């Protein structure tokens, strides 16, 4: 157990979570849905996107246990009837979050490489941010409610009844998968490989 790593992960998670949720809200607004704006989610204020269980408690506990990283922010509400493209629009809103994490990973990789010589501590923090940002992108693409990837199931036109049944047990499925399977370690390994690739691309 490493308390320092857990605290760092939670702090970085809050930083990376903000553009993730903002991206959902922004794309929804661009597609005609004003629900996120009315609910105050079209903002870069981190407190607007915090879910205390998913943003603080679970990330801290799973970081301490070392079996991966489990966490999420406060979901951005959307009104399917207002979204241009219907379920296809919903898929675009869902993908926007993980895509923002990939973009941030690339930016942080550049910061890590450029600051490595003169500011090694900043470089190390940025590199950790790359790792966590890629992890969040992969984790959120898992097709399990309430994660973003589950919305792709709806866009693929799976029966709504099947989705609703899956949503009933989604939280439990995620907990079991992260604790009792190597899923967390697989996601961590893929994120590490992606981090090394990005750092090499920047020299």
Layout: helices, strands, pairs:
Elements: H1 3-30, H2 35-38, H3 52-65, H4 87-115, H5 120-140, H6 149-155, H7 160-168, H8 170-180, H9 183-201
Helix pairs in contact: 1-3, 1-4, 1-5, 4-5, 4-6, 5-9
Q: How would you characterize the overall build of this protein?
A:
With 203 residues, the protein is mainly α. The chain has one domain (3-201). Helix content is 70%, strand content 0%. It is built from nine helices and no strands. Helix 1 runs antiparallel to helix 3 and helix 5 (120-140) packs across helix 9. The protein is globular and about 50 Å long. 37% of the residues are buried.
Distance between the termini: 33 Å
The rough form would be described as globular
Determine the strand fraction and express it as a percent band: under 5%
Helix fraction?
55-70%
Could you tell me the mean pLDDT?
91
The poorly predicted ranges are none
Strand count, sense and barrel status of the largest sheet are: none
The radius of gyration is 17 Å
SSE sequence, one letter per element:
HHHHHHHHH
The total count of strands amounts to 0
**Secondary structure tally, helices:** 9
Q: Give the helix/strand class.
A: mainly alpha
Please tell me the total number of domains. 1
